[in-house]
Each structure stands twice: as structure tokens, then as C-alpha cells.
Amino acid sequence: MNRIGVISLLVLMLISITAVAQTAKVYKWVDEDGVTHYTTTPPPENADYERLKLRTGGGSAQAANNTAVVDEAVSDEAAAEEPEETYLERRKREAEERRAKARERELLAEECGKAQRALTFYTTHTRIDEPNADGTNIRRITEEERQAHIRTAEGRVAQYCNP
Length: 163
What we know:
Blueprint: H1 3-19, E1 22-30, E2 36-39, E3 49-56, H2 59-81, H3 87-124, E4 129-131, E5 138-140, H4 143-161
Antiparallel strand pairs: 1-2, 1-3, 4-5
Helix pairs in contact: 3-4
């Protein structure tokens, strides 16, 4: 085959390949937390979903159209879910909530450590001296008081270490 024939055949093959439009499967579904997902893999079996059909193979114009369709779906859904709150406000609020939860976890861990140290102290020491209620004299606590301290420490361990 001559050079022009090979080039013509390659051009014809290239045109036929790009002209064949394929349909991409995109799934839109909402999880149990109310978060909307757009994926190319099927959603979990128990999820209600909608299958969006996007055409591929049409070059950058088709890709831009597909992006616009998905962006429009996301925008419409976000507007329906959050009419009073903008996207940035929601993101800031969520970040603040994550920081507050992280701080709460830190405080729980700190209290858990204190409770565990108290429990260890009261269970390993049988002769413990404490100041009186007025703080003037030091006295040795009774076994009943030590057992009460142990029960209190166990309760605090259960509360702070196993929330």
C-alpha cells in the first residue's frame, strides 16, 4: 500500500473511533448521613440511586457539557438542602464542629488518664494519708474510705475511658 493510502486509512480509522459515542454510567445516590455521592461504580445494594447517562467521546465540548450537567445537579441539590447557608459557611461550620469534637476527645482522654492514675493509686496503696477537711492536719484514711475512692475512680474510668 502506498504512503497516501496508509495515511488515508489512518485518518479514516481515527475519524471512526472519535465518532463512536459511548455512554458513561454515573450513579447519583445519598448515603445514610444525607451526603450525595456521584460515582462511576454502583452504590451499595441498599441505597436508592439514580443513573445519569453522560455521553463520552465527543471531545472537549461534550466533556464541558457533562461537567455542566453534573455541576448543575450538584448546585440544585445543594441549594435545595441548604437554602440559608452558603457552601463556605457550611464548610466553616463543619470545620468548627470537627475541631470541637477533637477537643472533646482530648479532654476525655485527659480525664481518662487522671481516673486511671487515681484507680491505680488507690488499689496499690493501702496506707494513704490525706489532709483533713479544714486542711490543717493530715490523717490516715480508713479502709472504707479507700474502697469508696476506688469505686469513685472505677466510675470515672467507666465514664471517661469507655464513652
